[in-house]
Amino acid sequence: MEVVHYATDSPCVGNMKCLACERVTPAWQSSGMGESFPHFYCDTCSSVIHREQDKELVDPVEPSQQLLDQIATALPNCPCGGRFRPGANPKCPHCRAEYKHPWSPVQRLTLPHVILLDGACLIRDRLYSYQVSIGSKAKYWLRVVRRALA
Ligand SMILES: [Zn+2]
Ligand SMILES: [Zn+2]
Hints:
- By secondary structure, this protein is an alpha+beta fold.
- It has helices spanning 52-58, 65-73, 137-149, and strands at residues 2-6, 13-17, 24-29, 39-42, 48-50, 84-85, 115-117, 121-124, 130-134.
- A 6-stranded mixed β-sheet has the order 1-9-8-5-4-6. A 3-stranded antiparallel β-sheet has the order 2-3-7, with no helix packed on it.
- The protein has one domain (2-149).
- Bound molecules: zinc ion (ZN) (2 copies).
- Residues 18, 20-21, 23, 92, 94-95, 97 line the site of one zinc ion (ZN).
- One zinc ion is lined by residues 18, 20-21, 23, 92, 94-95, 97.
């Protein structure tokens, strides 16, 4: 899997403040323009899946619980061993608390804004999947080497 590097001061990198431990974590946030919906977070780590095959199901209809269930049952497991699940969220790397989202899982079917924390993977079906590395270049190169050996 490719590793994509972002500097902490990159324009698409913002800060997420954890409500539980109040620590701040840099995160890559997609603009709405990428139309990265529907997407689902892993229930164990902070990786995300976004598949064009799911988008084709969501695009022509109104989001519904039935559609969500249909997509959810067809989601694969995350490379970490966890499961991509509706309602899951990215997790604070310091205390593991979730960054909760105010919308329901059905409403989130059309939410285009993806949040990728440092070290999270974006799994895609038609385009290549990648891991984001936010911050130092040394950490990025370490991840590239680890991926090459894996
Ligand atoms: Zn926290
Ligand atoms: Zn995972």
